[in-house]
Amino acid sequence: xxxxxxxxxxxxxxxxxxxxxxxxxxxxxxxxxxxxxxxxxxxxxxxxxxxxxxxxxxxxxxxxxxxxxxxxxxxxxxxxxxxxxxxxxxxxxxxxxxxxxxxxxxxxxxxxxxxxxxxxxxxxxxxxxxxxxxxxxxxxxxxxxxxxxxxxxxxxxxxxxxxxxxxxxxxxxxxxxxxxxxxxxxxxxxxxxxxxxxxxxxxxxxxxxxxxxxxxxxxxxxxxxxxxxxxxxxxxxxxxxxxxxxxxxxxxxxxxxxxxxxxxxxxxxxxxxxxxxxxxxxxxxxxxxxxxxxxxxxxxxxxxxxxxxxxxxxxxxxxxxxxxxxxxxxxxxxxxxxxxxxxxxxxxxxxxxxxxxxxxxxxxxxxxxxxxxxxxxxxxxxxxxxxxxxxxxxxxxxxxxxxxxxxxxxxxxxxxxxxxxxxxxxxxxxxxxxxxxxxxxx
Amino acid sequence: xxxxxxxxxxxxxxxxxxxxxxxxxxxxxxxxxxxxxxxxxxxxxxxxxxxxxxxxxxxxxxxxxxxxxxxxxxxxxxxxxxxxxxxxxxxxxxxxxxxxxxxxxxxxxxxxxxxxxxxxxxxxxxxxxxxxxxxxxxxxxxxxxxxxxxxxxxxxxxxxxxxxxxxxxxxxxxxxxxxxxxxxxxxxxxxxxxxxxxxxxxxxxxxxxxxxxxxxxxx
Lengths: 442, 219
Prior knowledge:
Number of helices of chain A: 13
Number of strands of chain B: 12
Helix content of chain A: 25-40%
Helix content of chain B: 25-40%
Structural class of chain A: alpha+beta
Order of helices and strands of chain A: HEEHEEEEHEHEEEHEEEHHEEEHHHHHH
Oligomer: heterodimer
Distance between the termini of chain A: 75 Å
Low-confidence stretches of chain B: none
Low-confidence stretches of chain A: none
Strand content of chain B: 15-25%
Largest interface: A-B, 37 and 25 residues
Shape of chain A: globular
Strand order of the largest sheet of chain B: 2-1-3-4-5
Distance between the termini of chain B: 25 Å
Strand content of chain A: 15-25%
Mean pLDDT of chain A: 90
Structural class of chain B: alpha/beta
């Protein structure tokens, strides 16, 4: 028996004369994987899943069980707009299963689903709205800017206007509504803010968004990158993530009588993120390069604190619309857009829920002068710092029960192993910095 | 001939209690809030249900909320002007009148909420302005161009377009399009409306927001 969603998919494929259906999923690091099936195999894929060889995929490879089942989620069925020609393909996100009928524990989408069940068991629906920053360069070999524009600039310098316009059109055709789009602080840096959505749809959207931005850039002969810090001395690219929990159609973070309009639940959730930030950082900021963004002086957070106005805080409580219940939210400013969104949204949620369950106490709001404090003053004020580099992040993450539990044993172990390898590769690499600094003098 | 129910805090004669109903035939059936159960509704099979919210607006909203999924009949509340600011619009009512409204207005509103959609569900093709919806083919076209919708987006626009000019509350959309057991909450409706509008492009205005209540297809 087909569900109405499945019938819709089959019917649309027939009516629209779709030739290929792309089945999408991600590996543990968040790279999009895809394979095509033809309409002939579609009904079987929808009802029983369809087999593929997972051995070549990061985090999937355990030789003895390389046979995997991709089970497409019909609610994500979307015909691909490929202007100006007629579209002949569609995509669906998949959950990955093992042949024995159990969910594959290395499937990030199901890690998030599991985390969301924990929230729904407590009566909460988890909404997120990310702001995705990225750079356009002439090509992938260097960091030549397209323009010298700045924050919100609207000048002829902003060559990328056409790029952004096409990108937004493409996103909207894919059913991803855009809230704002503007030029960022750095030259050639841009930001697209997505309107909030439930976390699973949003993680799918982030994956789609990265593809749409890169594809559109490629079509116009330039290169788009979500690398967290492509240029030293210039602001990096983050993924500020707006977070809210809803319960019975009410914003669980909202309390009109509180000074920051934050309810007890909101404060506990925020306290949870702060308390576990150092542990989850390896997931939200997963690359060697991620930690070059998290340095002082570029509006990126370094210290574990919250504030309403200070944009260097780890978590901000935005004050755009005081008194407006729907808009009350937290803004986690540490994740970057090169994360795996399924896993990043999962660990942020787990940290926040832990704060609620265990009734964490929210530390006081940070002063503006947090950067002027000496390390010992910060220590006295109980203000921690994010890991200095990937190495420290992995060390802290490896000890985290919260992350282990949230990612599940398989994903956790693989992730830590993979990241240790990345750090070792980096550690033994002789960088241009060293050659430039040391060769002439030593 | 419309069969009406008159739900009020105490059982009263509707014709005496609300002047607009004087001489109305068949006479509305009076039912106390506390007696209004799914069984009573099933017994009378009303075309529309009037709810007296003049004295106790919160109780009236509670009754509507409790019964809205138990009947196909629309709820129309009678409210005092003072209650408008604080009334729970999400309770699932189809429309309301102010207690001092002329009888003709009540008639017109009743006719509007109780009339079947202009084009019945069985009609496969619905045309509204530049938008054409083909239920049989799961297809929506804007000026001849097919939109690439997901199933829920399609169901949502099809449902709204079949009721042009009528306010559909978030809760009714949620239960009609997603089903009662769906956990997502009414924000799901907002999210899908925004996705739909994004895809509708220049026709996005065809789906109107009715503040604090829900959505309406431009009629």
